[in-house]
Design brief:
InterPro entries: ACOX_C_alpha1, Acyl-CoA_ox_N, Acyl-CoA_Oxase/DH_mid-dom_sf, Acyl-CoA_oxidase, Acyl-CoA_oxidase_C, AcylCo_DH-like_C, AcylCoA_DH/ox_N_sf, AcylCoA_DH/oxidase_NM_dom_sf. The chain has 671 residues and is α+β, with helices and mostly antiparallel strands. The protein has a domain of 167 residues: Butyryl-CoA Dehydrogenase, subunit A, domain 2, CATH 2.40.110. It is built from 22 helices and 13 strands. The strands form four sheets. Strands 1, 2, 3, 5, 6 and 9 form a six-stranded mixed beta sheet that branches. Strands 4-8-7 form a three-stranded antiparallel beta sheet, with no helix packed on it. α9 packs across α16 and α10 runs antiparallel to α11. The longest helix is centred in the middle third of the chain and has 36 residues. It is globular, with a radius of gyration of 28 Å. Bound molecules: ligand LGZ2M252 and flavin-adenine dinucleotide.
Length: 671
Amino acid sequence: MAATQLVNPDLVKERQNAAFSPEHLTYFLYGGPEKTKRKRFLQNLVIEGVKKLGVKQYATVSREEQYEQALQKYAYLVDTERQLGITNSTDKALLHEAVFPCESFPYILQYAAFINPFTMLASEEQKAKWLPLMKNFRLVGTYAQTEMGHGSFLRGLETTATYDPSTQEFVLHSPTISSIKYWPAGLGKTANACIVMAQLITKGHNYGMHAFLLQIRDLDTHQPLSGITVGDIGSKFGLSANDNGFLKMDNVRIPRNNMLMRHSRVLPDGTYIEPKNDRLMYGGMTSIRTDVVGVASRRLCIAVTIAIRYSAVRRQSEIEPGAGEVQVLDFQTQQYRLFPQLAAAYATTFASTTISAFYRTVSPHIERGDLQELPMLHALSAGLKAYTSWTCADGVEVCRLACGGHGYSEASGLPKAYVDTTAACTYEGENYVLILQTARYLMKCCRMLAEGEQVPEVMDFLRPSTSETSRLDARLVMGDLIQAFAHRAARMTRDAAQSMQTSIVKGENPGQAWNSNSVQLVAAAKAFTELHVVRVFAEAVETMRGSLRHVMESLWRLFAVNNIVSSLGDFLVDGYLSTQQVSLLEPAQRDLLKELRPDAVSLVDALDFPDGVLDSALGRWDGQVYEALYDYSLRSKLNEKQVLDAYLKHQRPFMESQWKKHAASAVTSRL
Ligand SMILES: CCCCCCCC/C=C\CCCCCCCCCCCCC/C=C/C(=O)SCCNC(=O)CCNC(=O)[C@H](O)C(C)(C)COP(=O)(O)OP(=O)(O)OC[C@H]1O[C@@H](n2cnc3c(N)ncnc32)[C@H](O)[C@@H]1OP(=O)(O)O
Ligand SMILES: Cc1cc2nc3c(=O)[nH]c(=O)nc-3n(C[C@H](O)[C@H](O)[C@H](O)COP(=O)(O)OP(=O)(O)OC[C@H]3O[C@@H](n4cnc5c(N)ncnc54)[C@H](O)[C@@H]3O)c2cc1C
C-alpha cells in the first residue's frame, strides 16, 4: 500500500490493536516471504496493466461490453504470462484472480476443461498433433457434455457418435431438441472447437459416453462449420462475461482419429477396445472439482474482507445512549454473523490446499494405471466441492446482507461475488448429486468394514469407538471437539446404512432403498465432509506458533463450535453430548466472538487481497468508502446526461396525460 495513502482512523486503530502479525499469517498462506513478495508483484503488475487498457469497471457496463472487455483482458493476461515466462499453476491462478476478480471470462475452460481433459483422454499421437494448436490458441475450446435434457445423469446423454467403417468417420448427431448441448462455458461465440461427450455406437452396439474432439467453427472466418448450429444461451443470473452456449450437430462427420483414444479405442473396422476402467472418462470432472473448492473459498475470503473492513469503518447507532455512534463491528449480532464466515473462509482455504495436494499426489498413480486411490479421490473431491460451494455461497450472502443497504449496490463487489459463487453449487455436478456420490463411498466403506476389509486411514472414524459419550468441557480442547465431529459422522453413516438395510428387508430394491434414505445419506456425507474440513483446519493451526497460533486456534474453535451449535440435534440425538455440555457451547461462542473482535481486521488483512481484486467501494484497504461510493454513483450511465431521452419519450408524455386527465390544467415546470 502507498505509505501516503490517507487511511480511515478506525482502520488504523484496528490494525494497531491486533495481537498478532498479519504478515506472518500471510506468509503462512502463500508459502513464505519470497512467495508472498512474488504474489504481490504479480497481482499489482496486472492490476496496473489492466488499468492501462482503459477497460471500464465491470459493474458499470452492459453484458456485451463485459464480454468484449473480458476478451481484451484475457489477451493482455496471456501476453503478460508469456513475457514473464510463467508456467507455475499458482502464479497463473494469482494472475487470473487479479485480472478477473470474481468474474468469469470466455476462455475460462481453455486449460481447465479443454486442454486438461484432452491431455487425460488423448493418446500420445493425438497429443502431439493437437496440443500445440490448443496451447497456442489456434484451437479455442470448451467441454461440451451437458445437454438441455441431461446434465447430472450422464448415462442419459442423447448425442450420438456413430462409427461408419466405410469412410472411417464418426457421425456426430443431436437427435432431439433435448439432446442439444447446452451450458458449456465459452461455447456460444468464443470457442472454435470442443470436447464433445457422446454415446459411442459401433457395429450396432452402444458403448456409452466417450469423448470426441470437434471443430465447430472455421479457423479463419470463425463461421460455424456445416451441420453445426451454435450460439449463446442468453442472459443468466451472473457470469455475464461468459458466452455459455448451445450446440446442435446435424450428422457432422469427423475422422475416426478425433475420438480421444488413450483409454478406449475404435479400430478402423469398427471393433471397440474397452478401457481398463470406464470411470477414467470422468477424470476431467474430478480435476475441476478440486479447482472449484479453491475458487469458492477465494470468493468467501474476498467477501469477508469487504464486510469486516466495512463494518470497522461504518459507524451507526449507539450502544450506550449519548456515548456516540459505534463501529457496527462492535455489535454482537454483527460479529455473530461475520466471524463464522471468517472462520469458514480460512477453513475452506485449508481444505482447498489439501485436496489440491491430494489430487497432485494421486493423479500420477492414476496416470500409471494404479486406480486404488481413485474412489477416495472422487468421494472427497465431490464432497468438498459441494460442501465448500454451499458454505461459501451462503457465506458471501451473509456478508452482503451484513453490509446493509450498500451491500446491495454493485459498488460493494458483493453481488458479483455471490452470483459467481452460487454457480459453483450447480456446475461441475449439482451439489446434491455430488454429495450423494460421497455417501455412496461411505456406504461402501461401511460394507467393507463389516466384512473385515481394510479401508483408507481417513475412513477409520467409521470403526466402532469405545467411547459413546464426549469428554468435552469448558476448555474446549481441540481433540474433544474433533472427536465430536468424528462421532457424529460415524453415527450418521451407520444410521444411514442401517436405514438402507431396513428398507431392503421391507422389500425395496437397492435403487428404491437409496432414494428412500437419500436425505439421511446426504446428511451423513455432509457430516463426513465437515469432519474432514475441521481436521485439515486443525492440522494447519497446529503447525503455527506464538500469538498467531493463539488467534488461529480461537478462530478454529469458533468454526467448530459454530458448526456444532447450528446442527445441535445431530450431537444430542444419541446422548453423545449431554445437555450440560451443550449448555457450555453458546456462552463459549459468545466469548470467542469477543476474543476475536480486536483481531478481525488483521485476520482479513492477512488474506492479502489488493484493492484491485476486492473491486469494492466498501472493502478498500484505506477505508475511504463514502468517497468511493459517491465516485461510483457519479459514473452511473444514467448520469451521463442530466435529462434523459427516456424522459422526453416516455416520462413527460405520461406525466402530462395523467395530469390532464385528473386536473385538466397545464403542466408547469415549477411547483
Ligand atoms: C491461499 C492459497 C493461495 C493460492 C492462490 C490461488 C488463487 C486462485 C484461486 C483458485 C484456484 C483455481 C483456479 C483454477 C481455475 C479453474 C476454474 C474452474 C471454473 C469452472 C468453470 C465451470 C465449468 C463447468 C463445467 C461443467 O459443469 S462440466 C459438466 C459437469 N457435469 C457433471 O459434473 C455431471 C455430474 N454427474 C456425474 O458426474 C455422474 O453422472 C454421476 C453423478 C457420478 C453418476 O454417474 P453414473 O455412472 O451414473 O454413476 P453411479 O452409477 O452412481 O456410479 C458409478 C461408479 O462410478 C464412480 N464414479 C463416478 N464419478 C467418478 C469420478 N469422477 N471419478 C471416479 N469414479 C467415479 C462412482 O463412485 C461409482 O463407483 P462404484 O460403482 O465403485 O461405487
Ligand atoms: C454457470 C454454469 C456453467 C456450466 N458450464 C458447463 C460446461 O462448461 N460444460 C458442461 O458440459 N456443462 C456445464 N454446465 C452444466 C452443469 O454441469 C449442469 O447444469 C449440472 O451438472 C447439473 O445438471 P442439470 O442441469 O441436468 O441438473 P438436474 O440434474 O436436472 O438437476 C435438477 C434437480 O434434480 C436433482 N437431481 C438430479 N439427479 C438426481 C439424483 N440422482 N439424486 C437426487 N437428486 C437429483 C438435482 O439435485 C437438482 O435439484 C454449466 C452450468 C452452469 C449453471
